Amino acid sequence: MKFLKFIIAAVFVSLLFGCSGKYQQPQTFNTPVQGLTKEQVKRAILDSATKGHAAFGSWKLQSINSNTIRGSLYNRKFEVVVDIPYSAKGYSIKYVSVSDNLKDSRGNVHRNYNRWVNNLDAKIRENIFKAK
Fold first, then answer.
1. CB-CB contact of 15 with 25 (8 Å)
2. Per-residue pLDDT tens for 12-44?
3. In the beta sheet, which residues pair with residue 62?
4. What is the third-level CATH fold of 25-131?
């Protein structure tokens, strides 16, 4: 009986994951920050760039003006570009573009885009926590 329940649960979970689309709307990540200066937030973001060899591509971050950092991820044959506007109160990670092999005709992006950007956001939050 337990085995049958396990099989039914496994089939249900596979159906859930199988039905999720390969392409999704690109997410915008908004993160509030407290207790840091604008320069400290900028440094935390820039320090999130990939250092050394990374298993799944490298984020390159560069300041494009006094309020925005441009992030580029090169992962094998894929390219992702985001803008990160920031202030002492927080930052956002906003979609700019992806390579043609990561988007569909309706403007959706491959689900890996949101995962890669979420990983960048987690690294930035970790650096902000360390800066406090």
1. no
2. 555 445 455 687 888 899 999 999 999 999 999
3. 70
4. Alpha-D-Glucose-1,6-Bisphosphate; Chain A, domain 4 (3.30.530)
